[in-house]
Amino acid sequence: MLQLDYRDARPIYEQVRDGLRRLLVSGAIAPGEKLPSVRALAASLAINPNTIPKAYEALEAEGYVCSVAGKGSFAAEGAQVDGRRRERLLAQLDEAAQELLWLGEDAEALCERIRNKGGNGK
Amino acid sequence: MLQLDYRDARPIYEQVRDGLRRLLVSGAIAPGEKLPSVRALAASLAINPNTIPKAYEALEAEGYVCSVAGKGSFAAEGAQVDGRRRERLLAQLDEAAQELLWLGEDAEALCERIRNKGGNGK
Amino acid sequence: MLQLDYRDARPIYEQVRDGLRRLLVSGAIAPGEKLPSVRALAASLAINPNTIPKAYEALEAEGYVCSVAGKGSFAAEGAQVDGRRRERLLAQLDEAAQELLWLGEDAEALCERIRNKGGNGK
Amino acid sequence: MLQLDYRDARPIYEQVRDGLRRLLVSGAIAPGEKLPSVRALAASLAINPNTIPKAYEALEAEGYVCSVAGKGSFAAEGAQVDGRRRERLLAQLDEAAQELLWLGEDAEALCERIRNKGGNGK
DNA sequence: GTGGTCTAGACCACC
DNA sequence: GTGGTCTAGACCACT
Predict the structure, then answer these.
(1) pLDDT of residue A80
(2) C9 CB neighbours strand E below 7 A
(3) Model confidence, pTM
(4) Can you give the pLDDT at residue B31?
(5) Residues of B with CB under 8 A from a CB of A
(6) Residue-wise over D38-60: b if at least 16 C-beta within 10 A, else e?
(7) Phi and psi of C16, rounded to 5°?
(8) Cα distance between residue C23 and residue C38, in whole Å
């Protein structure tokens, strides 16, 4: 389900957070669906159970996840996501696009990439 | 010319590297133009001179900059940029676009952003 | 483990880099094996600890080494080596071979050298 | 005839020396043929005339060139080349071959490269 | 204990 | 003046 890279400079919890977010936005996990429990995910990734809540809390702060005490964590709707996250993504898109255009990439080719992303999810 | 943020998690040399790259791809520094000398830039940023070469070497490895001992460092042509840098940018673009689309952003609106980036440089 | 030559025109960090790469490709250091720590290697070579990371970073950029903060540096798999390194080696081989052939060296004799290199590692 | 690269770390005279040697071993300049005069070559490369004799002297020391006062410099036969140069080339070949084999390159493929180099010169 | 980063100051070769 | 290299010593986060 998730792939950890111990050679990655990012801490484990960030890799879990980013991996889960990727599964959410790719559609692999549908809105409302229950995420794996802390213990189950920790076991399947063979990491310390204390690491998982940190990832879940970060996603909850962003609005991607909704945790209910005693019941578990659930995937939220896209509309509930934090506005600052959206701005950061737009900035990331702008930055990559500007540099790619400077490198000679064709604007329409980049647009075509974006349109294709939308269709199939991943 | 550049702005450092000591609250930023990124090390100084990465901030310098990213800031200079931004100046290059935005057209603020033209290809072939001389970059500030190691000592001059260090002084203007009020940091140790040893920190600057690390940023310049990273940009040289990417193909954005060309340093010549005894003469200075110069902005390279876009065509000399490392292919792996281009792939990383495309991945960054894809990731941001996919998440934005999931958040409900309109594909054509994102395309319009990209087209505008190309025109005015910054 | 490594031998420095202060009469060599190459800077120390390049000698360390090339020496380590030699140990890796000769099989003296196996893939996955831990390399000496920055401080330990600096002490054993009687040089400043700051010089070692420069060699390790270069090998990491080539794909020969993987450094993990807090854990150490490790030998990578051959498959992870940068493609540009491979091209540079092929060019080096071509250049040496062409000149040797012009000097009257027999092509088959050179081939025999290459076949022998493969067998015993060093 | 020769291509200089001012971004290259090597001094100009080494680039001229290596470029001329390349022309010799590739067959572009035949044994016995007259090399361009110091002034002519300096003019065609748009560099200081003092730089050319340094390159010619180096090639003469290696045995690739034979200079006659008042008449000019001439390409020598392969057999006249310095033995140390040959040993250095063999070492260069060995080193590149060993690393390429470690990277998974096929020994016979490398041999085929060498055989092809011999046939057409360049 | 590990690698990563930064400061301070020095010397070199080259232009 | 330039970039390139090295030394010495320090602090940090993470294991």
Answers:
(1) 74
(2) no
(3) 0.86
(4) 94
(5) 21-22, 24-27, 78-79, 81, 86, 89-90, 92-105, 107, 110-111, 113-115, 117-118, 122
(6) beebbeebebeeebbeebbebbe
(7) -65, -45
(8) 17
